[in-house]
Specification:
Blueprint lengths: L2 H4 L19 H5 L1 E4 H5 L21 E9 L4 E11 L8 H17 L6 E3 L2 H8 L6 H16 E6 L3 E2 L4 E2 L3 E4 L2 E5 L17 E4 L1 H8 L3 E4 L1 H6 L3 H19 L5 E5 H8 L8 H18 L7 H4 E6 L2 E12 L6 H12 L5 H13 L8 H14 L1 H18 L7 H7 L1
Antiparallel strand pairs: 1-11, 2-3, 3-5, 4-10, 5-8, 6-7, 9-10, 12-14, 13-14
Helix pairs in contact: 4-6, 5-16, 13-14, 14-15, 14-16, 15-16, 16-17
């Protein structure tokens, strides 16, 4: 396979004769979209979040409560998002939210939200999510996700953002996200599906209207899916939305929010009244964001502050402060700058970039064999091609061969 054809090629075995499937371009992931209301509040429940059922066996609603400062009335307005579900399988999971983001991404790049129906190929969706495209188990997994997304009902009380009015609606908005779906798997396997229209979902009316009105922001799904926990993904989406709003206003990229609201209503952590325990649970998220260069490092005294009224400390009320970093993390910046600005690419840099993309390791020490393989690839394909090919190769390899986390896999894939 030539380097020029690989940029638009399917994963091995997926673009064969009789198959319509092609791996989505990497730019789809880089240019994903997030609906602003879903970026603010989770619509899923993590496995650690306590859920209850009533005497009839029905799930009791989950309630997330927050507030926002209204400049006109000069007071804090309470917000509430209530999640209920008629599904026997429980509430949507964080993985279901990833499926939803992949569907929004697909809609953006296929019909640009001109149609309420989104047609897709399951393997293409699996590739976006980093799932194994050939696994029959992922077909079952996708159907379960779509059932939960179809059966969830969301009530936004003073929490639904109207992009046309640039404000929260002073009313309750009740909506779902997916109204119906159709998944077809032919008996002889996915490779026999030759019509992208055989699998589809349809948005609910209110949610589709929000998408059409542009109630969206850009979201790099490669970055989002690189986080190793749902709480980090939720925190990234929320902070990315808030910083993006500040950037549009040319305001300083620094914000301060209520600690409990941030942790419970926006990230979806289980309610914890003990502040010390809450800080402990947030520590891995903040440290990872600092290491990656998403947030500036701060001392605990800078990061957390007590709430005072009339000079007196209010028991139990804390604020948490975030400041967006203007530079990527030191090691990440070094690796990326070498890869994007150096021509030719030193083979050691290519190897380190592979392990950074695959394993999120910033300081990998290349083996002699890896350096030799990288040198060979650069000589065959050229520096400019390898800059473009490596992210594509990693995305496809992780989807089809998740255990092939060695640089040799790149050489085998490109050969």
């Amino acid at each position: 396979m030539t380097s020029s054809s690989l940029l638009s090629a399917s994963p091995p075995g997926f673009g064969a004769k009789g198959s319509s499937f092609k791996a989505p371009p990497v730019r789809w992931l880089e240019e994903g979209r997030d609906e602003l209301n879903l970026a603010s509040f989770p619509i899923s429940v993590s496995k650690h979040y306590p859920t209850e059922r009533d005497s009839q066996g029905a799930l009791k609603p989950i309630v997330y409560e927050s507030s926002y400062w209204d400049k006109k009335s000069r007071r804090w307005i309470p917000q509430r998002v209530t999640i209920s579900s008629s599904s026997n399988e429980g509430y949507p999971t964080p993985a279901d939210e990833s499926v939803l983001l992949a569907l929004i991404c697909t809609a953006k790049h296929t019909n640009n939200f001109t149609s309420q129906k989104v047609q897709f190929h399951p393997q293409q969706l699996f590739s976006l999510l980093g799932w194994n495209p050939t696994s029959g188990q992922n077909y079952t997994r996708l159907k379960a996700s779509l059932r939960r997304l179809r059966d969830v009902t969301l009530e936004f009380d003073r929490a639904w953002w109207d992009v046309s009015k640039r404000s929260y609606l002073e009313e309750s908005v009740v909506t779902g996200v997916v109204s119906e779906f159709r998944i077809v798997k032919h008996r002889k396997g996915w490779e026999k599906i030759n019509s992208k229209g055989q699998c589809s979902i349809e948005w609910t009316g209110t949610f589709f209207e929000s998408l059409q009105r542009g109630n969206l922001k850009k979201l790099d799904l490669q970055v989002l899916f690189s986080f190793d926990s749902p709480s980090k993904q939720r925190a990234y989406r929320y902070l990315d939305k808030r910083f993006n709003a500040l950037r549009r206003k040319n305001a300083p990229l620094e914000l301060e929010v209520d600690l409990h609201e941030f942790a419970h209503a926006h990230i979806g952590l289980a309610v914890v009244k003990n502040v010390a325990e809450l800080k402990r649970r947030l520590r891995p998220i903040i440290e990872d964001f600092e290491r990656r260069g998403i947030l500036d490092s701060m001392s605990l005294a800078e990061r957390y502050s007590r709430v005072r009224k009339q000079g007196k400390v209010v028991p139990g009320l804390w604020r948490i402060r975030f400041r967006q970093s203007e530079k990527p993390g030191r090691n990440e910046q070094h690796a990326r700058s070498e890869l994007t600005t150096t021509d030719p690419i030193p083979p050691e840099v290519l190897v380190r970039e592979f392990h950074r993309l695959w394993r999120k390791v910033e300081d990998h020490q290349p083996l002699k064999a890896e350096v030799q393989e990288a040198s060979s690839l650069i000589e065959i394909h050229g520096a400019e091609k390898m800059r473009k090919l490596l992210p594509v190769a990693v995305t496809v390899l992780k989807a089809q061969w998740p255990k092939a986390a060695t640089f040799s896999a790149v050489k085998l894939y490109l050969s």
